[in-house]
Amino acid sequence: MNEVLDDPVSQTMIDIHCHVLPETDDGSVSLEESVEMCRMAAADGIKTIVATPHLFDGVHPPPSRDDIRRKIDLVMEASGGVVEIVPGGETRYSHEIFQEARDKHTRIRLNGSSYMLLEFDFMMVPPNIEMTIFQILQAGLTPVIAHPERNARIQLKPEILVGLIERGAYAQIDAGSLLGSFGKECETSVKQILRAGLAHFLASDGHHQDRRRPLLSKAVSIAAEIGGERYAKALVEDNPLALIQDRGIPFQPEPDLAALRGRAKKKAAKSWYAFWR
Ligand SMILES: [Fe+2]
């Protein structure tokens, strides 16, 4: 399986968020690009990718379950199976979630499991989100919040994320956030989320072969510096494996709320300074 790689590495990681399917959303634009993304991911040590096209984001028409399956088969065949690709979706918070949740075979499930990837608008957190989390859980699905560190409200008030986790949600951070690709606020926020033990998955959110690439290893090294090797490994191996196998999430750090309070104080002090100067 690794023969096609220039520098074979041991493939141990599972990427639960990647826009690897061709001509589906704002991710891969062609079969060729999808194949290249698979090769890059494999060379980086990724063995499985959950294909997560945008669903119900109001911009891209949501692909059907059959479309997703057909494109996965196409990409896997064209890439020689250098990585395994399993179906999923990145589901935008919307009323369609509840319609979909009633369907046992809904495309919003990651690899057909009871987990779904839930995305919010980047500027706000829906006002009734805690009730929504409860309703999603009642419908038999467990939401994994996609890249909370990129949400402006959560950057300002990370306690919101604590509340969602306390109600049964999990959190997935983006590799690009740790690498500083989305700006300083986002990088500060993701590091704080990690320090506070509020992340359960680290994924590439890969879109293309030349930008927002489907890679994890550099971000894993940064995560290990912040949260330790054990935590970093759990974010890309143990927890994603449990997710795609539809088991309970094995590594769930106790949230360290003191890590959040430290930053909140600093932020408050900074905004007073900004106000008076
Ligand atoms: Fe995404």
**In total, how many domains does the architecture comprise?**
1
Order of helices and strands: EHEEHEEHEHEHHEHHEHHH
Hetero compounds: fe (ii) ion
CATH homology superfamily = Metal-dependent hydrolases
Key descriptive features of the protein:
277 residues, binds fe (ii) ion, six-stranded parallel beta sheet, alpha/beta, single chain, 11 helices, TIM Barrel
Written overview of the protein:
By secondary structure, the protein is α/β, with parallel strands linked by helices. The protein has one domain (13-276): Alpha-Beta Barrel (TIM Barrel). 43% of the residues lie in helices and 14% in strands. The strands form two sheets. Strands 3-5-6-7-8-9 form a six-stranded parallel β-sheet. Strand 6, helix 4 and strand 7 (142-146) form a beta-alpha-beta unit. The radius of gyration is 18 Å and the shape is globular. The model is unreliable at 268-277 (pLDDT under 50). Fe (ii) ion is lined by residues 17, 19, 90, 205.
SSE arrangement:
Layout: E1 13-18, H1 31-43, E2 46-51, E3 54-55, H2 65-78, E4 84-87, E5 90-92, H3 96-101, E6 115-119, H4 129-138, E7 142-146, H5 152-156, H6 159-166, E8 170-174, H7 175-178, H8 184-195, E9 201-203, H9 217-227, H10 229-244, H11 257-276
Parallel strand pairs: 1-2, 2-4, 3-5, 5-6, 6-7, 7-8, 8-9
Helix pairs in contact: 1-2, 9-10
Bound molecules: fe (ii) ion.
